[in-house]
Amino acid sequence: MKIMELSKRLRCVASYVQEGVSMADIGSDHAYLPCYLVERNQITHAVAGEVVKGPFESAQRTVRERGFSDKIEVRLANGLQAIHKEDNIHTVTIAGMGGPLIAQILESGEKHLTTVERIIAQPNIHARPIREWAVNKQWKIVNEAIMKEDGKIYEIVVLERGRATYDEDELQFGPYLMREKNDVFIEKWQREANAKRNILQALQKAQKTKDNERRSEKIKQELANIEGVIAK
């Protein structure tokens, strides 16, 4: 059987999983990520959690076909309920969904994180709610990444236990990402700025109401903030 291959996005997530740990992949889909990590002896064992029956069965099939049933347990469960205390899970990965949903999963399943020391979140959009959750729940950002695959831009936020505070720009743009400010970061926020300019143009042509005026002022402030961060 061929060695398991991953998308660039999931390889980036995998790179933040430390050697020799146990992990739970929440929303595992086909369980490609835990299989990849087991195949490379990067983790000791894993739980692959899925809330939808179809992907759950696909994950079971992948694990069985790869011969990893002794190292990966696939569970049909809602979010972090896939984790049992006796699993002694060190690292949680949650990839491929919106940031607000990831934050909601972490919030609603917080009691299942008792043994967890690292969370690797890969939101498809809107990473800010994850950073806000971290601040409120005494997790700190220890690393971040931003990358592009097939025309789409993804962020990865790596959390560990600890207290931290972040200003508004750091919550919005990411403390590590805005410090590094690589080409993908610039592209992402230039796209956002262009989208806001388009909205402003539409509002200028729309009927003048107090709501539209308030919305215009808010978007102008957001646009100025983006331009300021890019220009720094």
TrEMBL record:
Transmembrane segments: none annotated. One of its GO terms (molecular function) is tRNA (adenine(22)-N1)-methyltransferase activity. SUPFAM superfamilies: S-adenosyl-L-methionine-dependent methyltransferases. Pfam families: TrmK (PF04816). InterPro entries: SAM-dependent_MTases_sf, TrmK. It comes from the Bacteria. This is tRNA (Adenine-N(1))-methyltransferase. It comes from Savagea serpentis.
